[in-house]
Write a structure and sequence with these properties.
This protein has 7 helices and 9 strands; from the N terminus they run αααββββαααββαβββ. By secondary structure, it is α+β, with helices and mostly antiparallel strands. The structure holds zinc ion (3 copies).
Length: about 260
């Protein structure tokens, strides 16, 4: 693995210089613990395109791999640090000037002469906090207000934020989907109460439309608690992703096509 350590140090040097296109040649087609779902881009393309997307909003974006070492099982361990300043438009969120610094241990597995990377210790609240720092969602004290900016977050980033994993977790409920298109575009319970909401969700079992988990009323979550219906989709803006409460499983929009 000495060769792998050398190549990871070379990759780190390119990322420290802001050359995120270097990821496309260095990363494997597969994720650390999963293969990309059929008909979807390779892990290398997905991760590279996500990094390049970040770089449009954070033009000074850099990343580094430090403390690279080899493990008994043939993998490498390292510390990944990502830094940048949010000065440009990021998926619809204007630059805030906020400096971002994000550090996490990673495990890296060689796949031929490429690498698959796993992020090891980034708990859910920290992932969501990163999205909030970048103004991709409203600040915590504005979560009951309509979104500040018309942001469309890439589904692959949402997948990572929701579950911390690149692969699909099993979800038996996808096969139980009955309704895919909403009949209304309001949360009627909020309307009745004179409230507003940040985003709308639709139950894929019965079609019920309710406000999201960051709404103060959480009407779709209450629908889930009352009925046991576990799986819903976003009907906000261009979004179409699916989430299952019971399995903590995220699916991308394409799951619904052809149904
Ligand atoms: Zn499920
Ligand atoms: Zn509501
Ligand atoms: Zn329902």
């Amino acid at each position: 693995m000495a060769d792998a350590v050398t190549r990871l140090a070379d990759l780190s040097a390119r990322l420290e210089a802001g050359d995120f296109e270097a990821l496309r040649g260095a990363l494997a087609d597969e994720y650390f613990g999963a293969s990309p779902p059929a008909g979807t881009p390779s892990a290398a393309d997905r991760i590279t395109d996500l990094a390049l997307g970040f770089q449009t909003g954070l033009p000074d974006l850099t990343a580094s791999l430090t403390d690279i070492s080899t493990n008994d099982d043939g993998t490498c361990s390292a510390t990944l640090t990502v830094r940048g300043t949010h000065t440009g438009d990021l998926w619809g969120a204007p630059g805030s000037g906020a400096a971002i610094e994000w550090t996490t241990p990673v495990t890296i597995r060689a796949v031929g002469d490429k690498f698959a990377v796993r992020i090891d210790e980034l708990p859910g609240p920290q992932r969501v906090g990163l999205v909030r720092q970048l103004r991709l969602v409203n600040p915590a004290d504005e979560m009951d207000l309509p979104p500040r900016y018309p942001v469309v977050i890439p589904e692959f980033l949402l997948r990572l934020v929701f579950t911390g994993e690149a692969g699909d977790r099993p979800c038996a409920h996808v096969a139980q989907i009955q309704v895919t298109e909403p009949a209304v575009d309001v949360c009627q319970e909020c309307v009745d109460a004179g409230d507003i909401w940040p985003a709308l969700r639709m139950c894929l079992i019965c079609g019920h439309v309710g406000c999201c988990d960051t709404s103060k009323n959480r009407h779709l979550a209450r629908h889930h608690e009352e009925t046991g219906h576990p799986i819903f989709r976003s009907i906000n803006a261009d979004e179409g992703w699916i989430y299952c409460y019971d399995d903590d499983a995220f699916r991308e929009k394409s799951t619904l096509s052809g149904r």
